[in-house]
Design goal:
Number of strands: 10
Order of helices and strands: EEHEEEEHEEEE
Shape: globular
Largest sheet: 6 strands, mixed
Strand order of the largest sheet: 5-6-3-4-10-9
CATH superfamily: HesB-like domain
Number of helices: 2
CATH architecture: Sandwich
Helix content: 10-25%
Length: 124
C-alpha cells in the first residue's frame, strides 16, 4: 500500500506531497544495502534534458540541504531539492518490474506530456 507523506517546505512555507510506494521503498532499501552505506538517501531531481524537455534524475546522497524536502518511508529517506519539488508535487514514485525491465516509475500530475520512452516530460 502506498503512503502519502506531507511535509512543510522551509522556503515556500507551502505543503507538498509525494506518494512513495512500498515497492519503491523496498527497492531503494535493497540498493542501499548493496552499497553498504546505511546513511544513503535517495535524491530525486528534475533537470533540463531528455527528448521532452525535462528529465528525472535519481542518485544516492549522504546529505540533505536545509532547503530540501525530506520524505521518510520506513528506513528510506527521499530527498527533493527546492527547485525540483514544484515539478514533483503530487507525484507517485513507484518501482516496477515487467516485460520492459525494471525501473522507477513516476506518475506525475504536473506533466502535460511525456516522451515515448517515459523518462522525460514537459510541464505547462
Amino acid at each position: 500500500m502506498a503512503e502519502q507523506t506531507l511535509i512543510e517546505t522551509p522556503e515556500a512555507s507551502a505543503q507538498a506531497s509525494v506518494l512513495f510506494t512500498d515497492n519503491a521503498a523496498t527497492k531503494v532499501s535493497e540498493l542501499i544495502a548493496e552499497e553498504g552505506n546505511p546513511n544513503l538517501k535517495l535524491r530525486i531531481s528534475v533537470a533540463g534534458g531528455g527528448c521532452a524537455g525535462l528529465q528525472y534524475n535519481f542518485a544516492f546522497d549522504e546529505t540533505s540541504e536545509i532547503t530540501d524536502a525530506v520524505f521518510t518511508r520506513g528506513a528510506v529517506t527521499l530527498v527533493i531539492d527546492e527547485q525540483s519539488l514544484p515539478y514533483l508535487n503530487g507525484a507517485e514514485i513507484d518501482y516496477a518490474e515487467d516485460l520492459n525491465g525494471s525501473r522507477f516509475v513516476i506518475k506525475n500530475p504536473n506533466a502535460t506530456s511525456t516522451c515515448s520512452c517515459g523518462t522525460s516530460f514537459t510541464c505547462s
